[in-house]
């Protein structure tokens, strides 16, 4: 029974997704995002294109049939026809109505590298399309991170609000006791109660904002979050500043596609060699003399080798290659711009990380001092040295200090992970 309960618990936890860590949310968002379906479609398209390129070496068979009527056909010279008619032979010549049912078979021997270029282009296009999807899905990671850290920041503010409410409650109860003993005034109790109500209102607003953020994150990951509080990621320092972003792979894929297109342009100016076989059943046949004597259908066949060279492709080859060179330069410019912007972002993130680390050191000291001042103020209030207004000011100072510390800690984490995202580490 015990093991069965444990198994049931495990199944229930699995069904809820256990998506409370940043890595889990990233993976689930990646799988849930509709654009992920493009990978399968790209693979299918690539297979079809490669299959079509391979079929260029399969014999091409063409069936045809035609019926024609001609205004003139080959005939015998009139003198020769008269001589034959004098001997009792009717040499009328080829009939003007002609019929043919034919089959043509062509086998490529050398296509000038066209099929090889088509395969290379199909593969290069598929790689480029996958890289584009990679870039789009990588951008999704940044959006998930922003929402995740936004929730963590709100969680910390809620925690500080709850601590503030606890402190205010404690002092309110103490002040009510003082009021009963005649040591405090009703105005002091009212002031504390007002502050407590304001803190509770702020808590409700924060909880509403957190629910909205969590709803957005649930839409991204495609399932409800498994825990009330998200797990704070580990503070992992960035080891190097070498970028391995998917955009760089996209630029490489685009250059590879240009090389495949260059192969295709070069193949258009090469001669093509093929073997062919033609056969038809009809009238007239290849034996024109026999067809001139009698109007009968016959079987005919022909085989041979054909060489074709489209010289016109030479006229545009240079311009087509220059267009590809221009496209390459544009890709190089895009890469340089991306690397420049990435360097700026890295520099900004490094500066932000350094600033936040220094701020956290100061924040810890400030929280320590503010807590001691607040504790002393509570003692002074009890002894009648200060009034309730002074105590509330000390409580507010301590709360603000704690909020700044927690905010800077979350911002430092976010800055580190933003830098890791910038570098794809």
Walk me through the structure.
The protein is of the alpha+beta class and 425 residues long. The chain folds into two domains: 16-58 and 111-271 and 309-423, Outer membrane efflux proteins (OEP); 60-109 and 272-308. It is 68% helix and 11% strand. The chain contains ten helices and four strands. The protein has helices at residues 2-15, 22-32, 38-54, 78-86, 114-180, 186-221, 246-268, 288-293, 313-382, 388-423, and strands at residues 60-69, 97-110, 272-283, 298-308. A four-stranded antiparallel beta sheet has the order 1-2-3-4, with no helix packed on it. Helix 5 (114-180) runs antiparallel to helix 7 (246-268).
Strand order of the largest sheet: 1-2-3-4
Name the CATH homologous superfamily of the largest domain.
Outer membrane efflux proteins (OEP)
- CATH topology of the largest domain, what is it called? Outer membrane efflux proteins (OEP)
- Characterize the main sheet: 4 strands, antiparallel
Q: Kindly estimate the percentage of residues that lie in beta strands according to DSSP.
A: 5-15%
Determine Rg (CA atoms, Å).
42 Å
Number of domains: 2
Note the run of SSEs as H and E.
HHHEHEHHHEHEHH
Distance between the termini: 45 Å
Helix-residue proportion: 55-70%
Q: CATH architecture of the largest domain, please?
A: Up-down Bundle
Low-confidence stretches: 1-19
CATH class category of the largest domain: Mainly Alpha
- Overall pLDDT, averaged? 85
Structural class, from helix and strand content?
alpha+beta
């Amino acid at each position: 029974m015990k093991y069965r309960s444990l198994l049931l618990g495990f199944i229930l936890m699995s069904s809820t997704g256990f998506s409370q860590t940043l890595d889990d949310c990233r993976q689930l968002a990646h799988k849930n995002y509709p654009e992920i379906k493009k990978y399968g479609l790209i693979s299918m398209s690539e297979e079809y294109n490669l299959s079509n390129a391979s079929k260029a070496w399969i014999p091409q068979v063409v069936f045809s049939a035609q019926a024609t009527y001609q205004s003139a056909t080959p005939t015998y010279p009139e003198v020769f026809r008269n001589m034959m008619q004098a001997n009792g032979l009717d040499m009328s010549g080829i009939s003007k109505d002609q019929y043919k049912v034919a089959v043509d078979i062509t086998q490529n021997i050398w296509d000038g590298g066209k099929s090889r270029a088509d395969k290379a282009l199909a593969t290069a296009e598929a790689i480029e399309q996958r890289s584009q999807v990679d870039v789009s899905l990588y951008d999704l990671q940044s959006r998930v991170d922003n929402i995740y850290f936004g929730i963590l920041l709100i969680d910390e503010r809620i925690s500080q609000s709850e601590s503030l409410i606890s402190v205010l409650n404690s002092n309110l109860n103490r002040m009510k006791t003082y009021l009963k003993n005649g040591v405090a005034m009703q105005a002091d109790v009212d002031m504390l109660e007002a502050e407590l109500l304001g803190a509770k209102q702020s808590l409700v607003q924060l909880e509403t904002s957190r629910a909205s953020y969590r709803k957005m994150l649930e839409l991204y990951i495609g399932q409800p979050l498994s825990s009330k509080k998200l797990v704070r990621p580990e503070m992992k320092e960035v080891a190097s500043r070498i970028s391995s972003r998917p955009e760089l792979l996209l630029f490489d894929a685009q250059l590879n596609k240009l090389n495949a297109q260059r192969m295709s342009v070069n193949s258009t100016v090469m001669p093509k060699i093929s073997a062919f076989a033609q056969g038809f059943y009809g009238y007239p046949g290849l034996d024109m003399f026999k067809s001139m004597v009698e109007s009968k259908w016959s079987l005919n066949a022909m085989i041979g080798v054909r060489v074709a060279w489209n010289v016109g492709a030479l006229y545009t080859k240079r311009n087509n290659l220059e267009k590809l060179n221009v496209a390459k330069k544009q890709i190089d410019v895009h890469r340089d711009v991306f690397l420049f912007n990435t360097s700026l972002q890295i520099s900004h993130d490094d500066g932000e990380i350094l600033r936040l680390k220094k701020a956290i050191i100061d924040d810890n000291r400030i929280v320590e001092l503010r807590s001691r001042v607040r504790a002393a103020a509570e003692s002074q209030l009890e002894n009648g040295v200060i009034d309730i207004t002074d105590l509330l000011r000390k409580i507010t100072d301590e709360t603000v200090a704690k909020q700044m510390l927690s905010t800077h800690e979350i911002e430092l984490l976010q800055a580190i992970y933003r830098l890791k995202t910038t570098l794809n580490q």
